[in-house]
Amino acid sequence: DDDIFSSAFCENSEKLINVHLFALAAKYYSLSNLGVCTPLEDVLEALKRNSEGVTGIKPDEFMNNKKSHEVQVMSELVDSIANYCGIKQVIDIGSGKGYLSSFLSMQYNLKVYGIDSSSSNTNGAHERNRKLKKHWRAYQSRGKESLKSQSLEMANDRPVENEINCKTISEELLNNANSLQSQGQMIIQNLVPSCGFTEMATLETSTETEADLVTGTQSHETKLSEEVLAALNVLPVDAVDDFSSSHCNCGELCEEEKVQRKMTSLKTKARKSSELNLYFPLTSCITAETELNDIITDLEDCMMVGLHTCGDLAANTLRIFTANPEIKAVCSVGCCYHLLSEQFENQEECHDQVWGFPMCQYLKDKGWCCGRNARMSACLALERVAVGQMLPTESLFYRAVLQVIIEEIYGVTKSDRHVGKTFSKSSSFIDYVRRSLKKLELDDSKLPDSCIMDYYEKYKHRMNELEAFNMLKVVLAPCIEVLILLDRLCYLKEQENIAWSGLVKLFDPVKSPRCYAVIALKNQSC
């Protein structure tokens, strides 16, 4: 109740007088408590995601624990959305070093364009992708050995079907070739070459055994044996050839079958050639006005993703999604709220500028503003603090005292330059101050060491006070994040071409504090 929570502050001075009530209010208005999120399990179920998932490359072998967790969870969701929408092209905005992009292309055989504004990131992504492919080939080789072993075991466990009429099988396969291809069905060739068997699998793992073919059974729903599935799942997609005619060597091939085999072989070679690079890192600065056709020449029906898109890039990702008919879905996880541009922060009239906040018309009409301090607070990680990963109090104290110094000694209250991660490189407070002043292009020669230490001693007793203040900011952080995320969701709800949109908690917030994804799918007619 708003009236109850308002009593946490003094009515006259507006100072905080009840910390406990303040904490309860913050929890009440957090995203996890408001009930507006859609559970990830419900989304995957609605998309009819195969619960067994896809096995193969393990991201934790190539990424740290945090990035591995993010990539594995998000890539499964992206693949599910892509399958649901019937698309194979993905655009990864703010792709960075290409962790998500390369995994999507190798694990799920999606054609991914990773766009990042940093050329060093793009170049790094190219090199990293090259190294990953070597590891992928090792997985492929390991998978083939496993497949061979499983196949031999199967051959020993059942009698050879000598009476199988290879010509009948071949003709049946040829008759069904076009329909099987259109359904995206795949074949694992020569599973048991000595028996002349050909196992067939669709993307839904539906199969047609040799017995079905001989008897003319029309069902395509027979499951592959568990042993074959286990072997198949180990292989990357490009280890499974497109449908081709039977490889039985019984009797002479008719001319029609020879032509069919030749055409299939050419198509397979062409496909494999084009799939040598399913991930394309590109360098470009993305804004709300960006025309994707200018960057991607073969743009087709696709979906747009962003894993921790920074500042305004998250908002612009949603704007590009709504404006481009080719983009059928979006899955965006934002971060760096402190870098958002705000329309009503400085009360400046800039009619042509596109702002990061607010996005929805409701908050625009109210002239809503968060302010930089609130946006900085939204970046804090309550869940990490709750499990004992405390705030870096000493570095925050260093930064606070530094600000006093540059205001009192240099008269500087605002600067376009940033101190950055100077604390981790500094051996002492004196070293920290001098390094920081150089970054800010301020003359440190007029500031003796003794003066620097005087400031340190003057405020040292207030370090606990600073820690308490920052803990209050941590408690409030989820409420501010709610405002930013709901603004983005409301923006999508305001669009007429959106079939469904929602907020989904993707990640473990202890591993990845910015864990909420904004997801939307367009109407099929759009």
TrEMBL record:
It comes from the Eukaryota. InterPro entries: Methyltranfer_dom, METTL25, SAM-dependent_MTases_sf. Pfam families: Methyltransf_32. Residues 66-343 form the Methyltransferase domain. This is MET25 protein. The gene is Mettl25.
